[in-house]
Write a structure and sequence with these properties.
By secondary structure, this protein is of the alpha/beta class. It contains ten helices and nine strands. Helix 4 links the parallel strand 3 and strand 4. The structure holds phosphoric acid mono(formamide)ester (CP). The site of phosphoric acid mono(formamide)ester has 9 residues, from helix 2.
Length: 298
């Protein structure tokens, strides 16, 4: 997200808004006619993989897919650089998810076509951030937003990318997490350097009634070096409809999904639940990103 200025983000969001009718199947688009997009997912995904695939289809393009890592030559020891060199000869754009921190940046150095980072390690998930920003703009407002981010702020890559982007809009941020899962101090320092109001706490006390967006996250079991450490914090922050009775009527609850147990199912039927719309907004925003990197919208 650090590569984007506020004006560039606004341009992507405006482009997504124009493409939303096509994302809903209400209009036809041929913007990616004749283009091939490679989907390389070295880590599990439902939303990112399928919303990119939907986005390509809605724009009239085609996809090629690595499929499961087990079925690829990664199992014979082929390294990421060689995989990227080869696939960039097949496709016009590559979308990649990878478990290693910095893999997206590294892939871009070996690719002859644009790489879109679909999430790398615990560090970045920039296309999730674009769709989060789009959701917030559509369902609430971006400028001076009062937001709480809660859950696994240490390993949750979505919140790392999101708070960097929201800083460009002067957000007021509260980070809610158990002490073991606090936002990395270098991110907090950088936000404070940018004069962003940041508060850190370990409970929802006094928070729910004060914010306009509550961004929940899952505790990232797969990133814990020690399973015992995961179990200690697995159930630490949960919300339910009763807790949300203290919320402002306009509060929107977002979650990048998948959820485990941090949002009770009784929240789904409240007017605050916004996470399924949020997942849909992955389609117009990824359509916009694909069209822009393919150079078919300028
Ligand atoms: N939000 C998100 O990245 O979901 P997936 O892991 O299912 O792609």
């Amino acid at each position: 997200m650090k590569d984007f200025s506020r004006e560039e983000i606004d341009f992507v969001l405006d482009t997504a808004e124009k493409l939303e009718p096509a994302a809903r199947g209400l209009e036809k688009s041929r913007l990616l006619d004749g283009k091939l997009v490679a989907l390389l997912f070295f880590e599990p995904s439902t939303r990112t993989r399928l919303s990119f695939e939907t986005a390509v289809n809605r724009l009239g393009g085609k996809t090629i897919n690595l499929g499961s890592v087990e079925a690829s030559s990664v199992m014979k020891g082929e390294n990421l650089a060689d995989t990227i060199r080869v696939v960039s000869g097949y496709a016009d754009v590559i979308v990649m998810r990878h478990p290693k921190d910095g893999a997206g940046r590294m892939a871009s150095e070996f690719s002859s076509v644009p790489i879109i980072n679909g999430g790398d390690g615990s560090v970045h998930h920039p296309t999730q951030t674009i769709l989060d920003l789009y959701t917030i703009r559509r369902e609430s407002h971006l400028e001076g937003l009062k937001i709480a981010m809660a859950g696994d702020l240490k390993y949750g890559r979505t919140v790392h990318s999101l708070c960097q982007a929201l800083a460009l809009y002067g957000a007021d941020m509260t980070f809610v997490s158990p002490p073991e899962l606090r936002m990395p101090p270098e991110i907090v320092r950088e936000l404070k350097r940018q004069k962003i109001r940041v508060k850190e706490t370990d409970s929802f006390e006094g928070i729910i009634g004060d914010v306009e967006v509550l961004y929940m996250t899952r505790v990232q079991r797969e990133r814990f070096p020690d399973p015992e450490e995961y179990l200690k914090v697995a159930d630490s922050l949960r919300i339910d409809a009763k807790l949300l009775k203290a919320a402002k009527p306009e509060l929107k609850v977002l979650h990048p999904l998948p959820r485990v147990n941090e949002i009770e199912h009784d929240v789904d039927s409240t007017p605050h639940a916004c996470y399924f719309e949020q997942a849909f907004y992955g389609v117009p925003t990824r359509m916009a990103l694909l069209a822009l990197v393919a150079g078919v919208i300028k």
